[in-house]
Specification:
Layout lengths: L17 E8 L5 E7 L8 H14 L4 H19 L7 H16 L12 E6 L4 E3 L3 H6 L3 E2 L5 H7 L5
Parallel strand pairs: 3-5
Antiparallel strand pairs: 1-2, 1-3, 3-4
């Protein structure tokens, strides 16, 4: 076996693939900073991943029902907007349906965000800026502090990462 050959799959190092920093206003005009991240990458360490996931789920136990409700509402809104589109144009107009669903979530009873929340997602390991994902920006109302081109926004609305 050649020692200089790289493994075909990257082994996880326990680092999250995405970190998010947000500034938001509480009940009054005070500003607060919130940091969050997605699940750490434990690829190749299944037992560690299972323990970390169980620990995360236990910490988020009270929040999960709220998140599930918001996700279901967002999905239902997206489906309702897609149902207005002829079948042959659905893929082409999926971005439009998602933009409408995102806007409709702001007044939905399951909306998890507040007002004036902005932030920036950072992708590890090189810490490049990333738009808040479709789910986070729709369910929480986060606005990116960096300006993205229309092409970048359109492409990103077709993914969830």
């Amino acid at each position: 076996m050649e020692l200089t050959k790289k493994p075909s799959r990257k082994i996880g190092d326990g680092r999250p693939t995405m970190v998010f920093a947000s500034v938001y206003r509480g009940n009054n005009t005070e500003r607060h900073i919130l940091f969050g991240c997605n699940t750490p990458n434990w690829r190749g360490f299944n037992a560690v991943w299972a323990i970390a996931k169980a620990f995360r789920d236990r910490r988020l136990q009270a929040y999960i029902p709220w998140g599930d409700s918001a996700l279901r509402a967002l999905h239902d809104l997206e489906i309702s907007f897609l149902s207005e589109i002829p079948d042959e144009r659905k893929k082409e107009l999926l971005v439009d349906a998602r933009k409408k669903a995102k806007k409709a979530m702001e007044s939905h009873r399951t909306f998890l965000g507040g007002t004036h929340e902005s932030g920036l997602a950072l992708r590890t390991p090189d810490w490049t800026g990333n738009m808040p994902c479709y789910l986070c920006s729709s369910m929480m109302g986060y606005m990116a502090i960096k300006t993205w081109t229309e092409t970048e926004q359109t492409g990103y609305f077709l993914t969830f990462n």
